[in-house]
Amino acid sequence: SSELTQDPTVSVALGQTVRITCRGDSLRKFYASWYQQKARQAPVLLIYGENKRPSGIPDRFSASRSGDTTSLTITGTLAEDEADYFCSSRDSSGDRRVFGGGTKLTVL
Amino acid sequence: QVQLQQSGPRLVKPSQTLSLTCAISGDSVSSNSVDWNWIRLSPSRGLEWLGRTYFRSKWYYYYSISLKGRLTITPDTSKNQFSLQLNSVTPEDTAVYYCAREVHLWYGNDAFDMWGQGTMVTVSS
Known about the structure:
The structure holds 2 protein chains of 2 kinds.
Chain A: E1 5-6, E2 9-12, E3 18-23, E4 33-37, E5 44-47, E6 61-66, E7 69-74, E8 83-90, E9 97-99, E10 103-107
Parallel strand pairs in A: 2-10
Antiparallel strand pairs in A: 1-3, 3-7, 4-5, 4-8, 6-7, 8-9, 8-10
Chain B: E1 3-7, E2 11-12, E3 18-25, E4 34-42, E5 46-55, E6 59-63, E7 71-76, E8 81-86, E9 95-106, E10 109-115, E11 119-123
Parallel strand pairs in B: 2-11
Antiparallel strand pairs in B: 1-3, 3-8, 4-5, 4-9, 5-6, 7-8, 9-10, 9-11
């Protein structure tokens, strides 16, 4: 079982804002990173650290953190944002890594 | 520009060993600022971290506890690559396997910023 918990599915209307959450005790100590995965493609890093986006990631993707929860927010969701989203962080020991179970985002 | 190129067989028989290699270009497996990881994706488990290796004056290795000692990650400095060996495989090990580079802003602030192309490995007789 994953030490990071995500809702399995989330839906959003085109152009609207959606929040995808990731919860786990280790998030009180460590930052999470967020990844987007589309079918038959490698995951892509979206957000890491406080709210840092790699070059090329649109600014409609942002993240926030509170207690044991980190959230990925997509503002003005596009059809191309339909994908699976995973959070990742260190486990409670700090030595290993864990992923959330993933959230499948459907854009209506 | 960093690139990770994976290679290895796509079909493995049950009880045998799954072996994959990740060749690195644009960075060094001996870098003292990044880690080198193996991760897999399956419909039943989503993304699953398998293990990592890194060099900080000496080599370090960490593995997922769930693999129960079946995994070995080996760096090869002469070829600038690292490999995965997963022993005693079962159909449960069928997945897309990825290698990935992990960067660190500071302790506890990490990210997998570069990924290999993925290798679909099927465990079947």
